[in-house]
Amino acid sequence: MTARDLSRFLGVSEKEVYDHLPHIEKSLGLAGGVILEPARCLSCGFSFKKRSRFTTPGRCPICRSESISPPAYYYSGKNTKKFGPPTDADESLTAINNGLERCREMDEANFHNSDSESVCEFKEDQLIPAQEERIRKVIKAMVQSCSDDKTVDHVGAALIPSKDEIIRILGILQDVLFPGFFGRQELTPSTLEYHLGNELVNLYEALSVQLAKSIRHECRRTDSLCVKCVQKGREEAVLFMEKMPELRRILALDVKAHYDGDPAAKSLDEIVFSYPGLYAIFVYRVAHELFIRNIPLMPRIMTEHAHSLTGIDINPGAVIGKEFFIDHGTGVVVGETTNIGDRVRIYQGVTLGALSVPRGSKGGNPLRGHKRHPTIEDDVTIYAQATILGGETVIGARSIIGGNVWLTSSVPPDTTVLIEPPRHVFKDERNR
Prior knowledge:
3 domains, 18 strands, 432 residues, alpha/beta
């Protein structure tokens, strides 16, 4: 009789039969025998073509679960013979049911001679009917919730860009804009053209698809009729790639600014490889080029990816000049309408933000499209944890903003702004 026969007549899963097989065999005198048909996996359904001599569940080479089914078993009594499937009148059916029930009730200590504190961790792979019905109700409720205007979903709408593909595009761009650092590193002058050619073709193919999806999504969202999303995506991809040589020159100045501003930097290579500030700036400069071309979704997906990796949140709409330096970087926030001049240095925890949206304004619409974030002129240094808020706030050129300063008003050029030193209290512990 096979384990499949036992599971069918007992009303349990095959896995349960195998989980308790040693105890059933022991109580009924069953013993494993030669498999008469190909074994199969109870988890993934993979069927083995070769006949094997499994006598207990083994490990599946496909899904790696320990649920290989050896389908044929023999009785091993005084008169050893092969039995077919049991019938309802078969006395062995009652005995097997009783043995299975005893197996369920007895703990691991009784069956396996282990510590009495251990409890048999029997795993049922079938849902209890009551639980299955509850899960069905959850599924039905979730489907119904998708028709509720107050919830958020993207069912039946235009294709949206793939976040995974956009992250892959950033990887290609990092390799192309910093050749020899990432991806293929054994580049030589003779192989550079072939390598860049291959990478730029891959970039064009991936970028044009995601740009087309972004444009199409915006058309559907605004109920606009667009029949040239694919063509526009391809054209925008080419326009972006034409700006890449200039992007390389600007990023080189950012690398130099990091080297000049951080005495701990041992080389330019160290900065390119490991500085989170430079990575956040690289992603921002790529995303900003797409932002100014009015590409939806993609620029923000890019900068939020960099935010999740570095803790530096730079909105792609911000305008940032050359030789921008972010030291350490964790907690830096640069808002959408921020203007930053050339050779600006900021440290960790700096916020260039907006004043709070008035209560009762739906989605911040009264301020949407207006300048809400400060302007930082050339050669300004802003130290850690400083907060500068408001669209009318201007920090004049060559000014220094000290740590923990809170500003909502403008500062003239060549000004140093510091908070008053806190009053320290020293206690002599020896005289207590």
